[in-house]
Amino acid sequence: MDLSRFIAARLRSQSQKGFSAAVYRVAVWSVGIGLGMMVLSVCVLDGFKQNIKLKLFSLSAHMVVTRYDRNNSFDDLPITRNNELFKGRKGISNLQSMEPFARKSALLKSSEEITGVLFKGIDLGSSSSKRLQPYLKTGVMPGIRSQDSLPSLDVLLSEFIASKLNANEGDSILLFFVQDPPRIRKVCVKGIYQTNLEEIDEVLIIGDLRLVQQVNGWNSGQIGGYELILNDFNQLDETAQEVFDLMDYNLQIEKVTDLYIQLFDWLLLLNNNVIIFIVLITTVAVFNVGSSLLVMVMERTHMIGTLKSMGANDKQIGKIFYWNGLRILLIGMLFGNLVSLSLCAIQKQFSIIPLDIENYYMATVPISYDWVSIAALNVLMALVIILVLLVPTYFVAKIKPILAIRFN
After folding, report:
1. 0.85 exceeded by pTM
2. pLDDT digits over 58-101, tens only?
3. What gap in Å lies between CA 302 and CA 404, rounded to an integer?
4. pLDDT at residue 291, as a whole number
5. Strands 183-193 and 154-158
6. Phi, psi of 210 (to 5 degrees)
7. Residue 404: band (very low, low, confident or very high) from pLDDT cuts 50, 70, 90
8. Torsion sign across C-alpha atoms 206, 207, 209, 214
9. Tens digit of pLDDT for each residue in 335-372?
10. CA distance to 268, 306, 333, per residue, from 6 (Å)
11. H helices within 95-195, ranges in order?
């Protein structure tokens, strides 16, 4: 066995009690709690990101292509379903799906209340319909009528709108499309969804695309636009440029990051806060480990002088404290990862910690495992602490044998 490792092991066995043991435990706890808090913060942040993005993508997709409208109206202008973008969609490598839709402003009236809404017509039974399934609170998704030529009169309301109208699953309500002349349809509430995103829940109802086509007097080849779902959201800007190159001159593209910029700004703010938190935690852990090692060196000043007088060099003596510091790092990291990931698993499974839905868009603290970030945090902590472990070597070199042997 290496002499430095042997002496380090003997020192640990002789320091199970007293001040040295307390200092050793403080260092281990500093590394463990610091790393654990960082892992927890990353898992919670990634949970927020994934949860909010999934809700947005389910109801708005990654990108929306519509006809350019200088009036910025809520109602979509018609475009041709089989346009140049649709024909060239297979050339977009990151494209997962491309679904037609059309939106139209309307009024919903129950027997007691009336409210303004934005009716979004989609191809019922398509992937757009399936993406909404996880957010159904009651009921089912609107279905296609047996007579394929007729649009479905089933709609999906948000919990907010349903509560405002005192409407329940199975109720019939009147849908007034604001136009000249106005069009009225009696629709059935087939289901109720809830995303807790005010921007969506307060205005959006879902129904059949063919109903918008019928009310607007469009033919089956006319739609309001396309929703594009990507395979990799991180390539949003690059894919948007590919789509732009294929679009007709009268079309416009809107990215979800622009449509809901306030939500993505909020996520960016959370991300910046976590970065600051990680820096602070790492600094505290480094300070505590460094201080602990210095205390160990001071406590062993007499031993260091004796070893130097016997011919041991500074590097050999420094390695004694290096091995003890490495043990602190490994035990602390094991403890930090084990506890933090266990807490994450408990929260993910049982949703113990609640949140205010109005402020955080979800009822409980979300958890998502970003293993790349977790691994990066472990590597960061290990590298920083290993650099700190070199500090004792510098102080060992400053100790003079003759003075150290006299020191007691």
Report:
1. no
2. 888 899 999 987 776 788 899 999 888 888 988 898 999 899 99
3. 5
4. 78
5. parallel
6. -65, -25
7. low
8. negative
9. 999 999 999 999 999 989 998 887 788 888 999 998 99
10. 49, 16, 23
11. 127-131, 159-165
Q: Which residue has the higher pLDDT, 139 or 149?
A: 139
Query: DSSP string covering 283-308, please?
Result: HHHHHHHHHHHHHHHHHTHHHHHHHH
- Cis before 181? omega within 30: yes
> What does the block give as tokens for 395?
């102080």
Rounded to an integer, what is the distance from CA 353 to the centroid of its chain? 17
Burial 196-214 (b: 16+ CB within 10 A, else e): bbebbbebbbbbbbbbbbe
Contact 246, 85 (CB under 8 A): yes
Q: Which burial class, exposed, middle or buried, applies to 240 when counting CB atoms under 10 A from its CB (0-12, 13-18, 19+)?
A: buried
Tokens 């294929």 belong to 246
How far is it, in rounded angstroms, from Cα 338 to Cα 49?
24
The answer to whether 309 touches 405, Cβ cutoff 8 Å, is yes
DSSP string of 62-76, one letter each residue: SEEEEE--TT--SSP
